[in-house]
TrEMBL record:
Residue ranges constituting the Acyl-CoA dehydrogenase/oxidase N-terminal domain according to the UniProt record: 26-114
This protein's record includes keyword Ribosomal protein: no
This protein's UniProt keywords: Oxidoreductase
Protein name: Alkylation response protein AidB-like acyl-CoA dehydrogenase
Keyword Oxidoreductase part of the UniProt annotation: yes
C-alpha cells in the first residue's frame, strides 16, 4: 500500500484553522438563513467563504492538498454550521464527504478532477436511476437523478446508474463521475424543509463516461475500491454507509442544538399571563433540559459510532456485518433523538413559533426533512440490525 501523509502530521493545525473559519462562516450563514430558505439555494457568499477557507477539502486526501481531518472534527464542523443554518450545513456535509468518494476512483479520475481544479467538489445523484450503455472505452449514460444537493456549486456529479445488460456486479450497478458541463439542472426544488439546499434534479443524455471514471457499486459501498487502497486513513477504506451518513445526521444534531438555544432565549424573555416568564415554569425548564440532553447524546453516539468503526477498519481492513448494521442503526437513532428534541420544544413554543419569520419554524421544517432522508430512516436501519442480531441475512443494500 502506498503511504500518504498521516493525520497527525497534517490534520491538527489545519483542523484548528477549519474550526475557526467555520465559526465565523456559521454566523454569516445564520444571518442569511431566512433568505437562503426563500432563495432555495445556499448563499453564494457562504459557499465562496467555505471554499476559500478550505472547508470543502476537510476530507480530501492530503496528497491532493486536502486536510484529511478526523471524522469527529468533521462532524463538529457540520454541527457548528447547522446550529445556524440547516440547509447550508446539509450542502457542506454532502459536498465535503464526496471528496472521499472521488478518492476511491482510479488515480486517473482523481488526477483529472483535482489537477484541473484542486477545490473541485461533486454533488450527489447516487440512486442508480440512469442507464449506462457499454461503449468502446467506457459507457454512454442517459437519465435523470433527483435530490442533487449543492448541484449549483459543484463541478462534478457522483451519479449512480444501472448497466444495460450488465454482467458481474449484480444487479449491474455502477457509480460514475460526470462533469457538470455535460449535465442539465432542472429547477424543481419546491419543498417544505431544507429548502435552501437547492437539491434539484439533474439530467444527462447519452454522455460518454470513460471507464476510469466508473466504479462498481459494491466496491464503493464496501470500501475496497481501487483508489481507496492507496490511502491509509480509514474512512477511504471503510464501508461507506458505516460513517458517511453520520455527516447528514450531524446536520440534525446541529439543528436540534440550535433549536434548544433559540427556544431557551425565547422562553427566558417571553411573558405569560401571570406576569412571569415562560422560563419560570418547571415544565419548560424540564423540556429544555431533556431536549438538550437528547441532542448532546446524539452527537456522542455519532462520534463513538464512527470512532469505533474507523478503529476496526484500521485494525482489520474492513468491518463486520454486525458493525455495519450497528452504525446504520445509530445514525438513524441519533437523528430520531434530535427530531424528538425539536418537536418537544416546538410544541411548547406556542403560536408565535408558527410565523414564517420565526427561525424556530424553519428549524422545525429542516429537522423533519433531515429525518426523512432514506439513509436515516430508523425503521429500515433498525430492521437490518435486528436481522443481523438474529443471524439472518439483512435485506439492506446500504450495508
Amino acid at each position: 500500500m502506498k503511504k500518504t501523509a498521516s493525520i497527525t502530521s497534517i490534520s491538527q493545525p489545519r483542523a484548528r484553522d477549519l474550526k475557526i473559519a467555520m465559526q465565523s462562516i456559521a454566523k454569516s450563514a445564520g444571518e442569511r438563513a431566512a433568505q437562503t430558505d426563500r432563495d432555495r439555494v445556499v448563499s453564494a457568499e457562504v459557499v465562496s467563504a467555505m471554499r476559500d477557507a478550505g472547508l470543502f477539502r476537510a476530507l480530501q486526501p492530503a496528497r491532493w492538498g486536502g486536510a484529511e481531518i478526523d471524522n469527529a472534527e468533521w462532524l463538529d464542523l457540520i454541527v457548528e454550521l447547522a446550529r445556524e443554518c440547516g440547509s447550508s450545513a446539509w450542502v457542506y456535509s454532502v459536498l465535503s464527504a464526496h471528496a472521499t468518494a472521488i478518492a476511491c476512483f482510479p488515480v486517473e479520475a482523481q488526477t483529472e478532477i483535482w489537477t484541473e481544479y484542486p477545490w473541485a467538489v461533486a454533488s450527489s445523484a447516487v440512486a442508480p436511476t440512469a442507464i449506462a450503455r457499454r461503449v468502446d472505452g467506457g459507457f454512454a449514460v442517459s437519465g435523470k437523478w433527483s435530490f442533487s444537493s449543492g448541484c449549483d456549486y459543484a463541478q462534478w456529479a457522483l451519479a449512480g446508474a444501472r448497466v444495460e445488460n450488465g454482467e458481474g456486479e449484480a444487479p449491474g450497478m455502477i457509480f460514475t463521475l460526470i462533469p457538470f458541463k455535460d449535465i442539465r439542472i432542472e429547477d424543481d426544488w419546491h419543498v417544505v424543509g431544507l429548502r435552501g439546499t437547492g437539491s434539484k434534479s439533474i439530467h444527462v443524455a447519452d454522455v460518454f463516461v470513460p471507464e476510469y471514471r466508473t466504479l462498481p457499486f459494491r466496491q464503493l459501498m464496501d470500501g475496497n475500491a481501487i483508489g481507496a487502497l492507496d490511502y491509509e486513513t480509514p474512512y477511504y477504506r471503510s464501508p461507506r454507509h458505516a460513517w458517511a451518513p453520520s455527516g447528514l445526521a450531524a446536520v440534525g444534531v446541529g439543528i436540534a442544538l440550535g433549536f434548544v438555544g433559540k427556544f431557551t432565549a425565547y422562553a427566558r424573555d417571553r411573558k405569560i399571563l401571570n406576569g412571569a416568564t415562560m422560563g419560570d415554569l418547571d415544565t419548560i425548564q424540564l423540556k429544555i433540559s431533556e431536549s438538550a440532553a437528547e441532542a448532546e447524546a446524539a452527537l456522542r453516539i455519532l462520534k463513538a459510532n464512527t470512532a469505533e468503526a474507523m478503529a476496526e477498519v484500521a485494525a482489520t481492513g474492513t468491518l463486520t456485518i454486525g458493525t455495519r448494521a450497528r452504525c446504520r442503526r445509530d445514525q438513524a437513532f441519533a437523528t430520531r433523538l434530535c427530531m424528538v428534541a425539536v418537536d418537544r420544544l416546538y410544541t411548547a413554543a406556542g403560536a408565535y413559533a408558527i410565523y414564517e419569520g420565526n427561525s424556530m419554524q424553519q428549524a422545525f421544517r429542516d429537522m423533519h426533512a433531515v429525518a426523512g432522508q432514506v439513509v436515516l430512516n430508523f425503521d429500515a436501519a433498525g430492521k437490518s440490525f435486528s436481522r443481523v442480531m438474529m443471524g439472518r441475512v439483512p435485506d439492506d443494500m446500504l450495508l
